Structure formats: structure tokens, C-alpha cells
């Protein structure tokens, strides 16, 4: 999985846009939803199609956001959408019709396939995930069961018979640390701006922010310093970071803000469009935000982070 994707030549920006998925034109959105309806019909299910989901006569709801992003990002264009949609629907229905993994797997198998996962607030129902730990504004850590064809995000009800929550979290972190590192790229320019990106097909790549010390040591060969790092998790398959050591933080912050916003905009498994300051105690402070009109980006600097910038500038004044 690369950092920057080639955009397929489709309907131009001048074409009227889809109201829910702005990367589609109205025509493309209608085509996509029609193909979703056909894929369900092939399995004998008549669904009611809404802008962002479909529902069947059993009142089961199937979100379309991730599937729409998968279709949008496929370099081969709309000609492959029917196949992508058909395979997705088959996988979803097969998972629903199969016995629950919580009933078929042994307790030890469940613990061996348990991982912590960072998700955006839009991805969970707060009433079903009361145990979720807030890691930053709008971001939560939950526990997920990794299965061959899907990832099951575990609710309070699902976790209750599995034992002590802290012990489950501890085992999930051991499993996360045991995952292979799939890929790493450095983003830099001629002026010295630089940040690192961990990337891979794993659904838990971005969640490695929860173990950032180990990630930085593995990727850069050096431990994190006392000032922590800038981090961004645009979607589940990418974790960007810049260890804070000097005034190189300033250009990295702006570049990472753009990187995060672009990566979040049209990808499956979106997490956050913002950049955060990771501190030694593991807390995350949001540093970027959208403008009031929602069109652009702005850097939000205050409090402790502003003090840190002032210290770094004083320590590295640069040329006269």
C-alpha cells in the first residue's frame, strides 16, 4: 500500500457531486448504489437503499462508507466496481450467517486473536462500548477480535464473559507488539522537512500509536526523547510520526496536517484527519483542525505545546 494513490480519470469536478460521498459524481453515486442493490438481490435479499447504508426486511443495516471508499480508490475504475461490491456483500452475509466466533472459539483462541484498535467516535455506539478508553478528542481504544474474513469490534456484552478487562487489554497489547512491521516510508523535502510513515494491510497499523515508543525505536533505531512526537492516524493502514528533537517540528507539523487530512478524506477505515502531540505518558493533544468554514486547515497551538516550541526555538536559534 503506497502513500499516494493515482486518481482514476472519472467524472470531472465540474459534474454535480454525490450528496453523501463527495468523491463520487451524482452519476457515479447512483451507479454504485444500484450495483449494491443488485449484489444483495443475487443473494435473495431485497434492500432499501439510502445515501449511506442499505437495510433489509429484517431491519439489518449495512453501512456503505467503507465500500464506497474501496471502489473510489481502486485504480481500475468503475469497470471493477461490480466485482468489488459482489465480493464485499458475499463476505458480509457469510459472516452474518456463520455462528459467532465468540461461541465457536476457545477462550485461549479468543485471547490469541485479540487486539487493541483505535477508532473514531463515529465508528462506535457509545452505549455499546462503555468500556472504550478515550485516547484523544474523538478517538477511542477498543478491543477487537481478528478473524479470517473480518474484524469483530467487541462490545461490553461480548467482553463480559471473557474475564477481567485489564487482563484482556494486556493480552491484546502483547498480540499487537507481536505483529510484523509491513512497510515504512519517509516523507521529506529539500528544505529538511521530514516525517516517517508506517503502513501496511493490517487493520491495526494505525493502532500501533498505542505502542509508539517501540515503533519509533524499531523504525528509526533511536528511542523517543523527552518531548514525544507528532503523530497522525488518517486511516487504519497508516501511522505517521515525527520524533520531536528540534525546530524541525515546525515544517513537519504543517506537512503532516495536510497529509492526515488528505489520507482521511476518501479511505476505508478512516480514523482522524488531524495531527496530535504524543507525550511520554501516552496522552494525545490535538494540534490541527479545520477552518471555521470547513474548507481549509489550521494549526492549533497553545499551552504546553506552545511552551515547548518556544524552548526549542531558544535552543536552536538558527543563523543570524
Number of strands: 15
Structural class by helix and strand composition? alpha+beta
User: Major sheet: size, sense and barrel closure?
Assistant: 6 strands, antiparallel
Strand content: 15-25%
Spatial gap, N to C terminus: 43 Å
Q: Report the helical percentage.
A: 25-40%
Radius of gyration: 21 Å
Strand arrangement in the largest pleated sheet: 8-9-11-10-12-13
Spans of at least 5 consecutive residues whose pLDDT stays below 50 are none
Total of DSSP H or I helical runs spanning 4+ residues? 10
Query: For the residues shown, what is the average pLDDT?
Result: 91
Written as H for each helix and E for each strand, in order along the chain, the element string is: HEEEHHHHEEEEHHEEHEEHEEEEH
Basic shape: globular
Number of domains: 3
Structure in words:
The protein has helices spanning 26-41, 65-73, 81-97, 101-104, 107-112, 156-159, 165-177, 212-220, 249-265, 303-315, and strands at residues 48-49, 53-55, 61-63, 114-120, 133-136, 139-146, 151-153, 183-188, 194-199, 229-232, 238-243, 275-278, 284-286, 288-290, 297-299. α1 crosses α3 (81-97). The protein has 320 residues and is of the alpha+beta class. Helix content is 34%, strand content 20%. It folds into 3 domains: 26-97, no CATH class; 101-177, no CATH class; 183-315, no CATH class. A 6-stranded antiparallel beta sheet has the order 8-9-11-10-12-13. Strands 4, 5, 6 and 7 form a 4-stranded antiparallel beta sheet that branches. The mean pLDDT is 91. The protein has 10 helices and 15 strands.
